[in-house]
Structures are given as structure tokens and as C-alpha cells.
Amino acid sequence: MKLYVICTVLLGLLILAYAEKTEKEAALAARQLLNSTIHAELVTIVSNTEKPDLNGFPFGSLEYITPDCTSNNGDVIMYLADISVEGEDVQRDGERVSVTIRDLTYYRDTDGPGVMDRARLSLLGTIAPIADDQVKDVESCFFKIHPDAAYWKYAHVFRMWRLTPKEIYWVGGFGSRHYIGWISVDLYQTATSAALVVKQQRKRRV
């Protein structure tokens, strides 16, 4: 029992030691979280002729994501169907979108801190289709992480899209232990993913 208590305390101290406290540390943690997460919530602005009363409302959808391997600057790649609500939205208005990326390790660690004490990252910016001369390279990176998505094009028309952040907001957990606030785009884009603040492996759950 004493050994368990000692180990628990040491683990807590280790977590605190790695907790991000500054904007720069949060930028590093944000890039690592992006690099270790396979899906996120995309929010678009509804622009729909079938439901005109909903135009202007935010619409959220779960999407596969990967970091943009062609630039390594923190842009986000998504593969969207033209016929989906979000696919139609971004074709009409790609100037106002956001994506929320969460630390999902709490799914595998039921004895650890709850979801509200886990890191999450909101990227607000613009989204545009990938240029023709970059599609092959982007697809290669994306389908390596999401091999099942390579077959979606046989059912519907899909396109690769790049979200470029203009504003970035980080919540590392509870504020007494983590940084909470806006992150400079320059800091985010130039940060490496070498920080050990967010310990999450890129692993698909079965």
C-alpha cells in the first residue's frame, strides 16, 4: 500500500514537471497533440439551400485528420466528401472554420484524470482544397495513417483540404497546472514536436 502511494505521488510530480506553463511550451505541446491525434471535430458555417433557415449556424462533424507533411508548419489535412454538410459548407465558405483536437488518452486510462483535465486545442482559420500538384504527396501521408479512407472515393467524391490556422487556443487542463490561453501563430508554426508535454501515441483504438 505504501509503495502504491509513493508511486502515485511520484507519478503526479512527474506529470506536473512536464505540464506546460508558458505560451511557448503550450505551442510545443499543441504541435505534439496534433501529431499524435487521428481525428478531431471540424466546425463549419452552414450554407445549405435545402435548409435555408439553418444558414449561418455552426455545424460540427467528426473527421479524420493528419498534420500537413508537405509543410510541417501545423496545418491540418482533412478528406471531405462533396455531398456532406461540411463538404458543401467549405466549398461555399472556407474563410471561417475551426477544428478541435483533444487528448484522447483518458479512454485508455480510466484511473487517471478525467476529460476536463486533458489537453485540447482549437485551431480557427481558413480551409482550401489541396492544389493538384500536391495531392499525390498529401494523399500518401494521409492514407498511411488512415488506410481505410483510401477506398471512400469509390462511394462518393472526396477531396483533400488544408486548414490553415489564423488563431490558436490551448487548454492544457486545469489552469493551476497548465497554460490556458491564446498561442501566437508564429510560435505554433515554428514549434517542433519534440516536447514531452502531451504523452499520447498515435494508435487506432479497436
From TrEMBL:
Gene3D superfamilies: Electron Transport, Fmn-binding Protein, Chain A
Pfam families: CREG_beta-barrel
Domain of life: Eukaryota
Transmembrane stretches, start-end: none
Ranges where the CREG-like beta-barrel domain occurs: 22-188
Signal peptide residues on this chain, from the entry's feature table: 1-19
InterPro entries to which the protein is assigned, alphabetical: CREG_beta-barrel (IPR055343), Split_barrel_FMN-bd (IPR012349)
Listed name of the protein: CREG-like beta-barrel domain-containing protein
Lineage: Eukaryota, Fungi, Fungi incertae sedis, Chytridiomycota, Chytridiomycota incertae sedis
